[in-house]
């Protein structure tokens, strides 16, 4: 849903392929929630860049936190669950994830004037994050991942509720 121009309309359309009583489910990120506590520059700067480039490209980097509203706007009653990967220091997966994400977004960052190649300095980014996280004994937080699911309602017989 991150990439749909109108996520609720897309969900309405996709749900037309689901039989009544079927389950509609999505898991989407809220990329703005990725962070480090205490903050470290390499994470703070690059999470901001990541969110800005998505916004400038017309995408929804915070869609995960909006899934409840999206499902309701599509006429569905959602159940929601969220989780955030986290780890202490720079030895885990979060620096790898963020560096790989920034690497994939660097051409779009340059095109949308979010950052230059030199500002990103992708070849040293992952190690910089690891070093800063270890030095500050930081808690690294990945994006908030939100799952939403709903049962497609049955149409009412002759317009009366059951």
Describe the overall structure:
- With 162 residues, the chain is α+β, with helices and mostly antiparallel strands.
- The chain has one domain.
- The protein has helices at 7-15, 41-56, 63-73, 94-111, 117-120, 122-136, and strands at residues 23-30, 35-37, 79-83, 86-88, 139-141, 144-151.
- A three-stranded antiparallel β-sheet has the order 1-6-3, with helices on one face. A three-stranded antiparallel β-sheet has the order 2-5-4.
- Helix 1 (7-15) packs across helix 3, helix 2 (41-56) crosses helix 4 (94-111) and helix 4 crosses helix 6 (122-136).
- The longest helix has 18 residues, at 94-111.
Key features?
alpha+beta; 162 residues; elongated; three-stranded antiparallel sheet
User: How much beta, percentage-wise?
Assistant: 15-25%
- How many E strands? 6
Q: Any low-confidence stretches, pLDDT <50, length ≥5?
A: none
Structural class by helix and strand composition: alpha+beta
List the helices and strands and how they pair.
Elements: H1 7-15, E1 23-30, E2 35-37, H2 41-56, H3 63-73, E3 79-83, E4 86-88, H4 94-111, H5 117-120, H6 122-136, E5 139-141, E6 144-151
Antiparallel strand pairs: 1-6, 2-5, 3-6, 4-5
Helix pairs in contact: 1-3, 2-4, 4-6
How would you sum up this structure in a few lines?
With 162 residues, this protein is of the alpha+beta class.
